[in-house]
Amino acid sequence: MGLREDRERFREVGEQRRQDLAEFIQYGDLGGSDRTSVRVPVKLVDLPEFQYDRLDRGGVGQGDAESGDPVGEPQEGDGDGDEAGEEGAEHEYYEMDPEEFAQALDERLGLDLDPKGKKVIEEVEGAFNDTARRGPRGTLDFDHLYKQGLKRTVAMDFDEEYVAEALRVADWGPSEAFEWAREQHVPVSKAWLVDRARDLDDPERWASIEEMEAERDPEPTHARLRRDGVGKVPLRRDDERFRHPEIEEERERNVVVVNIRDVSGSMRDAKRELVERTFTPLDWYLTGKYDRAEFVYIAHDADAWEVDRSDFFGIRSGGGTRISTAYELADELLADYPFSEWNRYVFAAGDGENSHNDTEENVVPLMRAIDANLHAYVETQPNDTMQTGTHAGKLREAFGDDEDVAVATVTGNDDVLDAIETILGTEDDD
Questions:
Q1: Is there a single domain that holds both residue 379 and residue 410?
Q2: What is the CATH number of the domain that holds 342?
Q3: What is the number of alpha carbons within 13 Å of residue 370 lying toward its C-beta?
Q4: DSSP three-state, residue 400
Q5: β-strand 91-96 against 38-43: which pairing, if any?
Q6: Which of 244, 279, 314 is the last residue of a domain?
Q7: 3-class state of residue 115 by DSSP
Q8: Can you give the pLDDT at residue 10?
Q9: Does 130 map to a domain?
């Protein structure tokens, strides 16, 4: 194995030791990634290298000492080495695109979200499985035409010799034989019986039809066709069918994600960081699942306004809280993303505080009115803070086990993955 191959092998071992995905989401540095590349830390193993002897003389077993001389006292080295334990482990990054991240998170959480395409972007011709009564002769479905003719041949077949025996019954002619054939469901025409009666050389062989039926049995159609063959199969224009390609619609899997965050005075740094740690992996996940993903960011205190992603997690205000203003703005912005063409997610986060009766009177009706694949609310309540908000509890009471509403509470980094699983698991069940 060459040095290059050896180095690659050690690098592969290092990548296998990349930080566990759950550990990365809960405690890792999310700031080094963006929506197109997720950078997960990798702790590299030491790579093999050559060491060279720097002594000025001597080789193996050489020197001035005689056999049996004591070894001298250890001497202090000239180098400036680091103290043991002072140098941190070497790290590089394993870069995952959002699609790989989504697959890894599915495996980690046992999810299997299968997004549906909504917007038709192209109609293409598929297999020639559809048929019509008219079309170019080159698309004629001859197999269908022949099968229809063959069915008709089999349906009209009968044992001619057996039917002709009915003409030999005493006092019977074509009319009597025809009536008998109809009762027997034999597909013979009266004209055929008239023609056949002219050629009979022994017109009165049987005293009655019962005697004839007792002495003669009709030959089954399948036995006769096996012996004599099908012969000429009649083809009719009415049986013609022309093959056409199926029209298949290619649909683009579009998604728009509305992220809402409470930026009022009660949302301290610890709460804000929990929002970022929960929302950021959700953005990566949905980017990896859909062909096209767009994001809308709304900040609110007592009022709501649209912000850039760069400001979304850092902005703070000193105002009060009225969550319904954010949903009113979300409803306006989502008008540009019709639910018939876009998958829509509305994720909101805060510490659960809201103005009096705003949740029951405004937020709940707005959530019910805004069409979305999923509504989610993430309540951030660090363990060291006093929990005074009631918004999350009221949402749980209003929606219960509703399939398109998820409510999760995050008290620390350890709860982040559970919150993400609650949200994505609700969408997975939908």
A1: yes
A2: 3.40.50.410
A3: 31
A4: coil
A5: antiparallel
A6: 244
A7: coil
A8: 52
A9: no
Residue 116 is assigned to a structural domain of this protein = no
**Is 255:342 a contact under the CB 8 Å cutoff?**
yes
Q: In whole angstroms, what is the distance from residue 46 CA to residue 50 CA?
A: 13
Name 106's Cβ contacts closer than 8 Å, sequence gap at least 6.
Answer: 112, 113
Cβ partners under 8 Å of residue 34, min gap 6 = none
Q: How many domains does the chain have?
A: 3
- Whether residue 76 is predicted with pLDDT greater than 70 in this model: the reply is no
Return the pLDDT at 21: 82
**Would the CA dihedral through 226, 227, 231, 236 be positive or negative?**
negative
* Cβ atoms 343, 115 nearer than 8 A: yes
Backbone angles phi, psi at 394, to 5 degrees: -70, -35
Model confidence over 223-242: pLDDT tens digits?
Answer: 877 887 777 777 778 878 88
Question: Same structural domain for residues 290 and 377?
Answer: yes
Which tokens go with 67? 């056999």
Task: Tell whether 181 is covered by a domain.
Answer: yes
Instruction: Supply the pTM of this predicted model.
Output: 0.60
Indicate whether 330 and 185 sit together in one domain.
Answer: no
Query: Which residues constitute the domain of residue 270?
Result: 253-429
CA dist 11 and 17 (Å) reads: 10
